Amino acid sequence: MQYQVNAMGKPCPIPVVETKKVLAQMSAGDTVTVSVDNAIAVQNLLKMAGQKKLAAESRTLASDHYEVVLALTEESLAAAQAPATEEAPACIPDARAKGTVVVLSSDEMGSGDPVLGKALMKAFVYALTEQDILPDTILLYNGGAKLSVEGAPTLADLKLLESQGVEIMTCGTCLNHYGLTEQMAVGSVTNMYAIAEKLMGAARVVRP
């Protein structure tokens, strides 16, 4: 059976508490889809899923609309159906560095050997996912637009960053120039006005 929890607009820890109540009614093989409006709620739900050994995945539908799908297995049944009145896990704080914008203007990092440059850029984007403090926004333009499309070696890490609340914005003119418009697979398409606005309003700009 498939269950739904609409926790849009509800503050922590309500999405977790309401989801626990539904889990208490579920049987092995059932799933529950939880709708929330912020990435912090997603993190809290995924943390709870890990504690209860649930299969879990998250997806971003819009900048203010996320879904977390939890699946109950025989192994996780007992843990998932622990009383819903137990103390809710602490709310995870927003781990983004306010006003920090990362600019990726190439699919290579540094100059010299292109193969090495691409490997370094892949490593840099992965390293961002491991930081305790994440950027607010990642801007991708010129050759950097190649990093957010299907098949890009950086795609999975950019999707992970987006699921954690990082805004991913790719230049639409750049995608069109490289013939990649239909292949963009993470974040949103943006324009030069929005890029200029982000850069002018940034407290700090990071350019690897």
Major sheet: size, sense and barrel closure?
5 strands, parallel
Q: For this structure, what is the CATH homologous superfamily of the largest domain? A: DsrEFH-like
Mean pLDDT: 88
Calculate Rg over CA atoms: 19 Å
CATH class descriptor of the largest domain: Alpha Beta
Q: Termini, distance in Å?
A: 47 Å
Percent in strands:
25-35%
Which blocks of ≥5 consecutive residues have pLDDT under 50?
Answer: 84-88
Helix content: 25-40%
What structural class do helix, strand and pairing data support? alpha/beta
The number of strands is 9
Concise overview:
The chain is an alpha/beta fold and 208 residues long. It has helices spanning 14-23, 39-51, 77-80, 114-129, 155-163, 172-177, 192-201, and strands spanning 2-6, 31-36, 55-62, 65-71, 96-104, 134-140, 167-171, 188-190, 204-206. It folds into two domains: 2-80, Translation Initiation Factor IF3 (2-Layer Sandwich); 96-206, Hypothetical Protein Ychn, Chain: A.
